[in-house]
Amino acid sequence: MPSRLPAEPDTLAPDQAFDGAVEHETMLFDRRRTTPSAARSFVAETLTQWSRTERLDDIRLCTSELATNAVLHGAPAGGQVLVRVELHLTVLRIEVHDGGNGTPAKRESRGTTDGGRGLQLVSAVADHWGVMDRQGPGKCVWAAFHHNAVPTC
Fold first, then answer.
1. DSSP string, 16-79
2. Does the residue 88 lie in any domain?
């Protein structure tokens, strides 16, 4: 886990770049209150099938935060949220796509106010995170986690 909370999204160095996914799964969800929970379950089931559960709690937390942000702030009413899981040789990447405008930014939380901590959590738990444009409207917010090249048993 990173020890600092960067103000800007983190990026992977070129030598850590994605060399083509070894495995990937994608699922499309309607914009609903239940989407974050369904996205967590989808990611957990996918990682369990791939025998890649060594950081499952961290990955589930980040998936939940990114999907919640997409539902609350990204996907327009009647829209959808796409969740993609990519397994690379030493990096696992979770992407959450939505059709909304704007670029998510990590905010400083104020006191005991509810909300505003999602990207702080992602920044603290994921090894890298970022926001990227996509074809068409919207954006992709992603989190990446280093893992062993050999799957857990």
1. GS----SEEEEEEEESSTTHHHHHHHHHHHHHHHTT--TTHHHHHHHHHHHHHHIIIIISPTT-
2. yes
Residue 56 belongs to a domain with what CATH number? Answer: 3.30.565.10
Domain that holds residue 63: 23-107+116-146
Residue with tokens 């939380």: 109
Q: Is residue 16 part of a domain?
A: no
Domain assignment present for residue 9? The answer is no
Q: Residue 122 and residue 145: Cα distance in Å, rounded?
A: 11
Number of CB atoms found within 10 A of residue 2's CB: 13
83-112 pLDDT, tens per residue? 999 999 889 999 999 998 877 766 666 555
CB atoms within 10 A of CB 107: 12
In a domain, 5, yes or no: no
Left if phi > 0, otherwise alpha if psi is -120 to 50, otherwise beta: which for 141?
A: beta
Q: What is the pLDDT of residues 107-150, one digit of tens each?
A: 666 555 556 677 889 999 999 999 998 888 899 999 999 987 76
